[in-house]
Amino acid sequence: MSDEKPPQLVDYFVVAGLTDTSRPLEEESQQHRPARPSEPITDVAVIIRSQGEEVPHGFTCIETTTSGHPVDLNAGLLNNPQMFICYKRGRDKPPLIELGVHYEGKDRPKPGYKILDTTPYSRSANLNSGGPGHQRTFLTYRRAAEPHGHNTLGVTDICLIMPSKGESTPHTFCRVDKNLNTSMWGPALFLCYKIAMAKANTLVYEAGLLGRYPEQDSESFPLPESVPVFCLPMGATIESWPADTKYPLPVFSTFVLTGASGDKVYGAAIQFHEAFPRERLSEKQSLRLGLLSVVDRRPVAGRSLQTRKSICVLSHWPFFDVFRKFLMFIYRYSISGPHVLPLETHISHFMHNVPFPSPQRPRILVQMSPYDNLLLCRPVSSPLPLSGASFLTLLQNLGPDNAVALLVAVLTEQKLLIHSLRPDVLTSVGEALVAMIFPLRWQCPYIPLCPLALADVLCAPVPFIVGIHSSYFDLYEPPRDVIFVDLDTNTIFQSEERKLLSPRSLPRRPCKVLLASLHSLSQQLDEMYSGPGEEASLELLLSDAEAARGRRAQLELEARAAFLRFMACALRGYRSFLRPIALAPAPAGRDTGSLFALQGFLKSRERAYHRFYGQLLRTQLFTQFIEDCSFASDRDPCLEFFDTCVDKVQAELEKPEDAPLMELDDARGGEHTVFITPPEQPAGPDGAELPARYRYDGFPTLRPELLEPPRDPLVAQLCQARSSAPSSPAPRRTKQEMKVAQRVAQKYSSVPDMWAKCLLGHCYGLWFLYLPTHVRAAPAKLRALQLAYDVLRKMEAHKVVLPDEVCYRILMQLCGQYGEPVLSVRVLLEMKRAGIVPNTITYGYYNKAVLESKWPAGTQGGRLRWAKLRNVVLGAAQFRQPLRQRERRAAAAPPGGRAPPAPRPSLQRQTTWAGRSLRDPPPAPRLVKSGSLSFPGGTHGEGGRGGPGEPPTTRLPALSAAPDPLPPRLRGPPGSAEGSLSDVSFATDESDRADEGPAGAGVPAGGTPRRGLAAKLQQLLSPGKRPPLRPAASTELPTGPRDAADPACPRRGSEQRDGEPPPRRSPAETLLRPRERPESTASESSVSLGSELDLSDTSVGSAGVPKSSEPLADGAVGQEPPAVEVLLSSCSRCQGCGALVYDEEVMAGWTSDDSNLNTTCPFCGRSFVPFLSIEIQDFRLPPSTAEDGSLPPPAAQGPVLSDRRRCLALDEAEPELCNGCPDTAVPRRSERVAFAYLSPLVLRKELESLVENEGGEFLAQPELVDSHPIIYWNLVWYFQRLGLPSNLPRLLLGSQHVAPAPQAQPPDSPCVRVRLLWDVLAPEPDSCPPLYVLWRLHSNVPTRLRSWRPHGHPFSLAFLEAVLSHVGLNEVHKAIALFLETLAAPGGPWHLQRSIYREILFLTLAALGRDHMDIAAFDKKYKSAYNKLAGSLGKEELRRRRAQPPSSKAIDCRKSFGATLEC
Description:
By secondary structure, the protein is α+β, with helices and mostly antiparallel strands.
């Protein structure tokens, strides 16, 4: 486990304000604008000069437009009344905050507005008084509510514009879009006004740090020095107010700090005012603030002095609402009192004892006081980057059209200056601008709330996105090449120097869909917040507040999805233009042109949009995007999600797709809520309450002695998800990959053959998750990687359904880790050959592997040249050899005679990863191909089953009967170094030698002609196109040099070099002729139910790599018995009907749900949990026996066919038999356990969770067996089932299931052998023995279980032979009918645990041997027989008596996994 700290909610608490070292901001050498008005506008009026009305006292008349044209509201009329608008400034009443124009009879009066219907002289103020036919028009205004503060926003300026004269709305002004001149004559005239804070007598200084907690910087995130200026972006001020001015409400603001690595830190702050002592002011400052008279320097009475402060929290999480409530509580606490607890206690309590919400406890309810609480909910789970963006705020402040215009500006990297009088809106909109272009990432300066101290960034010669308070324009002249976005007036101002591209330059259909979606969302927002104010407030503040928040979250998701769809359509097909690095990278390997086909991508777009795409491809946005797609980064899960969105969208449609791109995950899905109590109040000595003694005149300076440590250190860990171990991110599936895998599994669960391949793909996914652990422990890393590569090739050849790209990704990562870039290139080529386009994560690990690994030399080395020269010399020798043989035959032939032609030696191409032969010793060299990855097929010498004296060993089988099995095992020959691509090997073709012997003249070695009924039976039950008896070891791989070089391990069949192998009769010839005594001869052991399958048979071949299971990591299995033997069986008993459900039936009953442990019984249809039964047998001798050095007696010689029982025992190949005799080894200790048998889908989910929490190294520790037994035993089962190498069996030696090893250890590490059984490990006490066991008992063949005893059952030897006879004569329906009649005979009815199909199948396998039986053909015959009987008996009756054949899904599962199990 990692000691990684859990996520922390708040990192720092900061107090900012005016310090002794603060410098004035107004002394900056910037171009100032003229002095702004010191007082807001409090009244407006309309005068009619033609009626003799004059401008009222204190009012100012607007007589010209902004460019100097005279204004007359009724210009052009014959009886021009000469009407003008006047305004008045002051602070005697609340200021005006909004102006408007009202058309009488057409508009409804707005609530809160007042209509200006008369002039100061009591005449009508109708602006169109030309006659009765004109529209009556009046001015309207809205005033600020009482009481108003000194810094209340208000109208500070009014102007009129004439668009016909080329005039436009001035910057930062609001325009009333209603013409004041509605007559037919005269120019259009519009009213504009500006809202700002009219402040006078104010000094502005740069903010400084007044206090912080904690005082020490954390190692991962030190406190930035610029935090105070972001807390007070307009500076720390000293302001002079009238004495009776009320304090304004605190102003909440947010900001974002971006680190050097691109990570974001979110800040939430509130600004407030508090009293400032006059004693700290100098005379110059007092004069500027109006506190001293200018002439005699006397103090001015009736003035108060205030300063602006800020408190702030910094966090890596944008919980802005939570932080606002906490900061407001702290502020109210500081201005109230007295209190028993100091302010510092609440601050430290919130920072230390409020945990971060976790998936287990997603809701944290914090009670700060009896009247204040806040609810902290887990962030919405989304594949997109975490952001404080609010797309709804963007739509509310700018509208759909301006939002699309800003999308164009951001995609083309323009200079954007966003300004507003509301600082909390700036961050939300700025975050939305950088989030709308996902997956592109803004690379230029980005300051959503820029302080005045950093305003120089506006003059930077690079693109930027900067947000600033609108009062900046009252102080300074803005740059000319900047695009201004006014959030208060919903306007975008463009300069002549920098014009935006028109939205028409965007792709038409995606842009049309985007605009339609935004307009729909904007309309829904208006409906949500419109209507009667009372109803809206009740909805938002009372019972429906939760529903309103949920509705807003859904609209937020839809808005984000609309922009995501546009970006997916705009960048569709981009992955096909990525250029993978296939050679040693050049110095300019990271250049965009070498990573992406820019011109090809541009030509793939429509010509009408080339201007837009041309600018986009030249931006830093796109350059960084290509690098992120080409190399592994922390953004890989996000980019992989975008790739899935690209696959979903259809750019040709003019409406959104039915399937949403994003789904809202309920962050409060769990109902568990953690309640955090407020800090405890200390009690007095006698238990009484302490007096309240903490009262503050202003926000205090934080005292370290009052900042308490965490009350309970475990509270923060209580709600945390388990911290992740520092494991590689490559094995982890993203959430999107999990969803895709789930959909694929649901799709294939109803398709039998695809369901089997889907399960098989997840099994291989399990092994690749384990692969890093296996490679780390392997002595030859390159061989282990090559083995994994060959597994991928075989999987692709057999169309295994891979749920994701994790298999390829892990191998690519390991290639980079162990310096094998060439193999990584081959893995990428395999992906493309399989039709898989690597996603961003896989592609990033690929490029990382080929870039960071050391490539072989570009020129061909001497080793490869020598190999080529050797091939040339040997090729010439091969061509000369027939000539020499002809000369010898001609010399040795009698005169006039003709020598028979000699067979030609075959040439075979072969390459290994080691520079030596695959077979040892090579009798004759042959040509090899240095660049091939194929491996020798048909090897007989090393990979077969052991001789008669060998216990059954396990091998890594091939996926099919392909001639190129997998490479040698990781325990390769000593001295074989890890080779490279230039490695070559020379080997011999021993199969040619086997065919050249005398036995090859017409009759296969080891076989005799068939005759009689037995021959017919053998012919009917064997595939027609196969050889009658094929050597079982012909397609197996070497198990190591010990097997090949051990003289005590005799060769069989074609491997015997001393002489011709005597012919051998098949078991079918002795099946029905017990009295026949064939010749005495050595025999091959035919594989039956108790032995291993020959999976090279294509009829029952596995789609997996193996043919059987092999403990590869346990070393070569020699003649010594294993130290520990493990028997596993997945045969489970249904709790409903008591029937035994076998492995393939369990697989067929699993569902696609990766959390469902149940399978479905094929007989009763009930769900039950299957179990893996495990029996652990410890054969290690006690210390006393091991120390005396005595060895077990040698095994007897092989049996001869004259002994019928021993021949049958040999054909059965029971694992307990050693050279045909019962194995007398008795385990010193035996234990049986059972654990749930998990579906590969469920097991993979659990294994990923284990690797993420514990780390990949935990899979190599013995603690895995005891702490996670279900995962361990299921992995052992699947790996052994597919024959994939692993070190998992060895972990058993260190577990509690195996006794500690004796002190006298053998030199070699003990061997653990794993056997997989098809049937149950132990019989039920009162159950009837199965037919195959009865056959063995009648034949006196030893069985694995000694507890079987003949019970009172109707199954005699004659019955068994009759069943076999019917099966052999292709009369399976008669065998079924006989079985049913026997079960219904008097003395019954007999109830069997196994189905009739299973009984007949196992009996036939036990009698014939699996080498001589085609299970697929038997299934077809049984199904045909079942359909024939169903016509007479009925399917329901046959099902009731368990006579139905297995489902097609179960048969496909057995074919895919291979029936490699024993009984």
